[in-house]
Specification:
single chain; mainly beta; 5-stranded antiparallel beta sheet; 3-stranded antiparallel beta sheet; 1 helix; globular
Amino acid sequence: MRIAMNFDGYNKRRYSAPWIGRIIEWETGKKPVMNWGRYIGDDNGGEVEIEANPGDIVRIGQKDYRGNNTTADWYEVLEHGLLNEVSATKARELFLNHKESLNK
């Protein structure tokens, strides 16, 4: 299913385009590997989108080139495309549980 989040306009000299990624692998002691979605819009606003299923973990963020307002939030994909914001620790736990349930 299509997962999307809207973004308001931003100053492109200060911020990168918003981004979204779905976690596809997460080895112990390493950063997660992501399948990247895309941003549809411009600095006047738009939305990020990606294909994901309930139980998947996605990250959504935007880089602040000054470094003090960067976002990189974790979300669990729920039924009907709803997103539940979670901590990084909870995201890892949910990812591993979801991966295990898919392998049964």
